[in-house]
Amino acid sequence: MLRYFNINQKNSFNKLEKILDLRKIKQHNQSAAVKKIISDVKKGGDKAVVKYEVKFSKVSSGVKKIKFSKKEINSIAKKIDKDLKKSIDIAFDRIKRFHSKQKFLSFRYKDEFSNELSYKYLPIEKVGVYVPGGTASYPSTVLMNCIPAIVAGVKNIYLSTPGLSSAVNPAIIYAAKKCGVKEIYKIGGAQSIAALAYGTKTFKKVNKIVGPGNSFVASAKKEVFGDVGIDMIAGPSEVSIVADENSNPAWIASDLIAQAEHDVFAQSILVSNSKNLIKKVNLNIKLQLNNLPKKNIASKSIKKFGLAIYANNYNKIAKVINIIAPEHLEIELDNYKKILKKINNAGSIFIGKYSPEAMGDYIAGPNHVLPTSGSAKFSSGLSVNDFLKRHSLIKITKSGIERLGPSVINLAKHEKLEGHAN
């Protein structure tokens, strides 16, 4: 059941921030163990990668091949279910179409002294994509991380996913093949992040690493940042749903559970001006959980981090959402515009009763790699721009340096940089 929280009481906004912070504190920090793994991979290369894969995935220590051969890729990709293949193809086309509209144009202009000033976009040369295995083995992760890189013009995409301890998901291999991934590695965890960041005999060294993962993967990305680029430090998934007495409580419950089944640290929040709706949603959550395959995970998530926030007007509802800054926001109101114009912080916004967050996860078109844990206050979802470098080009004329040089000298001397002035 969702924990009830009345935002209309005194100091309730401060209390809400403290509740949200508790979830961040409880998430595990693996930095000490991860630093050791990264150091070992930098020194030992493939040998260290295999050592940790054997340790964490409990596979045979006699493993030698940590990269899928072309023959393996073709064979595994053919095993995909026909209907699933069709769905991946549809999703690929829709996601690519949306991201193709994000392209940035280089520009150039001349100022009044005929100085040429320009901005040039170039794709990153090599990108590594991490795709989790096990219970979180998602082909949608492949599409959402690879397609914006493709649109940006990245020529070399390398992918790593756990594939030594168990049979790899054919849908992941098919999606990777469709995206033109150059090489696919059979390694997971922090060791694969280290291998992508620094290279080994088998792993290609990349310039940027993207993709979700567990606490070890998140910590590893944080540690290698600076030596390579990363997309973001993603936390567990979250959704906030704004609804009123006219909303369908069964549908609301279903969407809250959809996030909760991801992870015990996932957060599902209902914000409503109707106490009656909150009661109905909680009743529906209880009923729907009984038939959910991932009941254990979803139940723990809802019990620990789920919230039902009662707010008696639209201004308070909007303030609540801006404090939460949710990864996913659903606005299930007939008069959604009153709330939408007040929302500043959210990763992706789903409008109306026919726009469940699951549509955005798979097939709508916009990217599902989104800021979590309140980071939507300062960042955005993955886009084509994340795979582009921007260069400024400056060409000063004789007239330009004669007219602007004195100002440069004044500024340099003020900052006591005589070398600049000279």
Explain what you see:
- The chain is of the alpha/beta class and 422 residues long.
- The chain has a 6-stranded parallel β-sheet, sandwiched between helices. The chain has a 5-stranded parallel β-sheet with strand order 6-5-4-7-8, sandwiched between helices.
- Helix 14 links the parallel strand 12 and strand 13.
- The model has no long low-confidence stretch (mean pLDDT 94).
Main attributes?
6-stranded parallel beta sheet; alpha/beta; single chain; 5-stranded parallel beta sheet; 422 residues; globular; 16% strand
Short summary:
The chain has 422 residues and is α/β, with parallel strands linked by helices. The protein contains 17 helices and 14 strands. The mean pLDDT is 94.
Task: Please outline the helices and strands.
Layout: E1 3-6, H1 12-26, H2 31-44, H3 46-57, H4 70-77, H5 82-100, E2 107-110, E3 116-123, E4 126-130, H6 139-152, E5 156-160, H7 170-178, E6 183-185, H8 189-198, E7 208-210, H9 215-224, E8 229-230, E9 238-243, H10 249-260, E10 267-272, H11 275-289, H12 295-305, E11 307-310, H13 314-324, E12 328-332, H14 337-340, E13 348-351, H15 357-362, E14 388-395, H16 398-414, H17 418-421
Parallel strand pairs: 1-11, 4-5, 4-7, 5-6, 7-8, 9-10, 9-12, 10-11, 12-13
Antiparallel strand pairs: 2-3, 3-14
